[in-house]
Write a structure and sequence with these properties.
The protein is an alpha/beta fold. Helices cover 37% and strands 15% of the residues. The chain contains 11 helices and 10 strands.
Amino acid sequence: MTEYAPIALFAYDRPQHLQQTIEALLNNPEARESDLFVFSDAAKDAAHVPAVEKVRKYAGEISGFSTVNVVERASNYGLASSIVDGVTSVCRQYGRVIVMEDDIVTSACFLRYMNDGLDMYSRDEQVVSIHGYMYPTGESLPETFFLRGADCWGWATWQRGWDIFEPDGRLLLQQLRQKNLTQHFDFNGAYPYTRMLEDQIAGKNDSWAVRWHASAFLQNRLTPYPGRSLVLNIGTDSSGTHCTASADFSGELADKPVKVERIPVEENEIARQAFIDFFRTRRPSILARIFRRAVHMIGRAD
């Protein structure tokens, strides 16, 4: 019998988004065999209390998974602390984890792909994570392919992968600069990852994801992506803090399984160029806003 990876789902104050996320997960046949952990952050102020309470009420009524465990934070962690703590605790217990946020809607093939990837590359030290989202580049890409680093919209990792996470943004930026990697890190200047890391250091964002990406990138670790997206982010609808509406990152969800077969563990240069071309067609302001939403918007403490 296959042992499915547990799912860690991080939520704050959007019960309707959380419901869509859960309902999509339940369309995956593997859900009934998967343990679900819902990490509910506490309200950062009185204005957010009613919405957080609705999230917790809904979370307490979730069924359809092997087990449902709701972790109600007693204080406002903010996304970075909540994710780091939650992923660390689940990895420590299970050795692997599928990580989601409350605005990620998945294909019915998502959990199969994630678990197949976790099994396929469990012993490949160079593979740091599995990613489920694919940008709508318009390019025909392989069924799966590798890119350097890690990503944050519907992903999974193992304890050995998460062990390389470096929380010190200053150290990461110093190493990127010393090794002359910032241009490559930024997809040849097409995406502002370095600036996001600088903003995290300056306290302008609470980004765990840019540090996760930088940690993996500096270690030359790779992440497989699906050629067809298994994830849709519904948080770019103006409902999240500091987020404006944008359809730039929307695409169709894969309605057929993405086949995970062993491929050479090396960065796919054609896919990398497709990402660069896609980023360059988007306005930098939109890229920055979407990135900030992706990396630090659940329950900021400030």
